[in-house]
Amino acid sequence: MYNCYVEVQTNTGVRVDNCANIEVDHNTFTGSAGSGWCCVELENTLTNVNVHHNIMHDYKGSSSSAGIGNWNAKGSISVHDNVMWNVSPYVEVGSGTNTLGPSDHSVENWVAKGYGYGSLESVSSSQDTTVDSTSETATQTAISATATTETEVATTNDQTTVSETAVTETVPEQVIETDNTSSTEENATGIIIDNRLREASPDVVYQDKVYIDIGGRPGVGRYRDLIQFDLSEYDDAENITNATLSLYWYYPDGIERPEDAIVEIYRPAAAWSPENVTWNSRDTGVLWTQPGGDWFDMNNTSQGDAPYATITLNGSDIPDNRYYELNVTELVKKYVSGEYENTGFLIKTRYENADYVAFYSSDIEDKDKRPILNIEEKAVA
């Protein structure tokens, strides 16, 4: 089990029971539900079990709040190079040296040092493929595909299990769809690219994931996104009557969130490179003024809080696998008129705290789930 973020809600984060040759590494464990008793439970006869480079912090259970819990564990058990704070007791079984009760309680800092969830990025294999498909309304060429391993943590009443599913991610070229009506012309504008910005991995480029995500995860950090569409086919802003950005919400599947996700759209303050943009930099050697991206709001205020568009996904709502729409007409018209350079959209949540959500990106194979920018124009007589 590796590279997982685990919130302990019942019993234990992960249980290792009567196992051999098990490694639990580079995960982050936390939890404030007041239930359970440890982050990692070691139980009965164990052979060559290695627990290392995990972060265990701010966990409050019911009967105990241990980092490494012992339930009749015996055998060859190594517990080393883990970082723990605000858990008690720290380690009940296993040999090794760990960092216990450090003064630095910043998860981000420890991730940067090689501990916990986000300090590893796993890619299992890659392959190249070419697919051509043509219809009356769209032409698409898939130019590359990468097989990655997505690790999911499923929490049961007793323990957390880990499953790995191979996912093929397809990077599409421009897709253009046209639907004419009697009074207006509506165009699904070709997408150029979208990128994730991840605070916990501030210098990593995330260009080809099948999802884009926003919001905040306690103990992990914030997530933002950049997305840009090709507007070069439009030359008359006054002819545009409406522009709608549609995002397909699918995650977290079947799970409510502690806080509402108030989705907001801003104008990136400068051009950014899809191949090089990160949380810290907009291009190689070119830092953002503010980590996480520089933007202007609708009042042209730098880092302002008046978004061009916003919608609210209530914390009690669960993803229903459909598009959610944001009206970005004003910003699109300013791009088309030339008042501003087309730098795309910066997407974030207002509070970025316990409001994490994810949408499908332009790299999802199913084109009916990709981000869409629909632009309506006055019909030409």
Computed Rg = 23 Å
- Shape by Cα distribution: elongated
Q: Mean of the pLDDT scores?
A: 82
Total number of β-strand segments?
27
How many helical elements?
2
Structural class: mainly beta
Instruction: Please tell me the total number of domains.
Output: 2
Q: In angstroms, what separates the terminal alpha carbons?
A: 63 Å
**In percent, how much strand structure appears in the residues?**
over 45%
Low-pLDDT stretches are 122-183
Order of helices and strands: EEEEEEEEEHEEEEEEEEEEEEEEEHEEE
Helix share bin: under 10%
| Main sheet characteristics | 13 strands, antiparallel
Compact overview of the structure:
The protein is mainly beta and 381 residues long.
